[in-house]
Design a protein that fits this description.
With 351 residues, the chain is an alpha/beta fold. Helix content is 44%, strand content 19%.
Length: 351
Amino acid sequence: MRNKNELLECMMREIDLQKEYLEGENISSIYIGGGTPSVLSVIEIQRILNKISTCFSINSGTEITLEANPDDLSKAYLKDLLNTGINRLSIGVQSFFDDDLSWMNRRHNSEQSVNCIDDSRNAGFTNIGIDLIYGIPGMDNNKWKRNLEIAFKNRINHLSAYHLTLEEKTVYFHKISKGLMEAPDELTGMEQFETLIEIAESNGYIHYEISNFGLPGYFSKHNTSYWQQKPYLGIGPSANSFNGRSRQWNVRNNSLYIKKLTHGIIPFESEDLDIETCYNEYILTSLRTCWGVDLKVIEERFGTGYKDYFLMEANNLLDKGKLLLTDNKITLGKSGKFFADGIISQLFMTE
């Protein structure tokens, strides 16, 4: 990583400058992610955690996650990592098939994926999550089932599974736009999503958010805090922060980030959130979860008018079974989960 030492020093400086941001709240989750944090040495990770502990109040049961690639998790690295206080791993497996990994330009192979899960457990980690991707061109439902079988056979605690998305300016997007590659098929994606839910739940995993499944007691605190709209602080280039009233985001450019922090300036932009934006974000985050939208919360936080508006917009979706109403809470129905983004957008308040 270019300028790694300078970048780390500036992140330490930003932690100092941001120590009042969370207004003294106890920290229940620390997530070292974004990019490839597992390229950091154990000493560098320890420095970051030590700095956080000097600036913030850390709970004894704080979940401390490292996001990692399978090929970075050697046995020696894992053993040393456990001594830093890291107690949860989020491993970017993506697929247990080499042809899928090659298509996605991943550095690791399927053997490394399986081995790193075993090595992590043998090193002493008891909270291990992985990421998988479905909807990949050439992946039929039988292949997807095999991916899930391998994952659950390896006794992971948490699974995040995402449908392949193609961003503009990527090689895949270019090939599809030129007709050199087929776009992901929606019907296949829906079938694989339904298979995901069925197999995960049959193995004892709880579908607590659209893309996330956890064994009881192993929901991601980091992700759950986001969906429950609790304040969070992000450190480093591109990091986002939220305090309930406003949102801010750091510049993406590493060189500019280093230049500004060297002079004691955090290079970020921010926006104050008006009531309509806060309402829309509550709908967006809550409806993705198994806890759903609480009508009482809407009324208390935003007013009767917003509650009435929500129910009016939700009525047709309730009739179609895409939304369910139980005990004053509205959740996505089974038929609505794959189309969550489109359904949620219909419930937004717009001018």
